[in-house]
User: What shape does this take?
Amino acid sequence: MENEVLRKNMERHMIGLSPYACLDSEARRFRDEMEDLRSPFFRDIDRIIYTYAFVRYSDKTQVYSLKNNDHITKRMLHVQYVSKIARTIGRALGLNEDLIEAAGLGHDLGHVPFGHFGESVLNQISVENGEGYFHHNVESVRILMNLEHGGEGCNLTLQVLDAILCHNGEFVMGEYHPKKKTPQEFLAEYERTYQDKNAVKSLVPMTLEGCVVRISDIIAYLGRDIEDACMLGLFEKKDIPKEILEVLGYRNREIVNTIILDIIENSLGKPYIKLSEPVFKATVALKKFNYQNIYDKSLSSEEKKEITTMFQVLFKHYLNDITLENKDSRIYTNFLNYKKDIYLKNTTPKRMVLDFIAGMTDDYFLLCFREVNLTKPAYTK
Assistant: This one.
């Protein structure tokens, strides 16, 4: 009797779900294992928050690097905003909140030091060294499948990994239609992102929950990044076109609330996620404004040049350390010494260096650069 009560308590979140929700019974892992009293997606949440990569969120840049302001959003805050926004939409639409929360919290694990600019530099290095294209969403999946637990990975469910892979909030759409896929199709998409530069742009989540996480990524950063920019004195809200603000609202809380309610109103009882035409157009316009006035200007040309040099120096240095088997190097003492044979035997030295650098926090990256390049000072906080 006690076990039956426990089971019902743990499955309470499944009561009254939409016919379009992903059920716990549909969860699939790449390696069979015994489940416990937790539902599979709930268990994935626990596995994600206990990864080393999750801990490093706290010193990962969201937009602004090299800024002395404790109120500027870091990656740790962003993923919590995404998770909360997505769960709000998911609850209203009767979707699986456990799947949504797991994907929301894990979607940015693969972000590198210095945000999207750092990602662009590491992508260039990866391509030049024959390791394919580098995308943070793909690296998030790689971390969870091939880096954590010494290289054995976390054995997360297919649905959570897929939602993370397909989360890329850079591509806003008016409608999000999930696309069913097999484990083999997911792996094929994942591998294709390394070889095809445009493959990442065509990724579509396999669940409605994944679609919710994807649009929530956009909702979470649009207004908040504006608040941060205004706090830093980069521009004033009056500089934002009035026709955008009249639709979405003038404060972050209004922008978030407007888009959430619009999605719920236009998506309830439907097998897809939809924005109304006015809100969709205003969201696209605000995203364009942000790129022109925030993201493209978040670093000076001098800072970009310096950061690019630091990435290149560290990559060459640690690759040389592996070649020379310099066991005193940080790539051994802080990284490779903790990896098992499954990682060491199936990973090229260049990919090892890319994984090591990609996982660094901003402060650790600067520390490593100062150590290997003593004649040239790096930026400090």
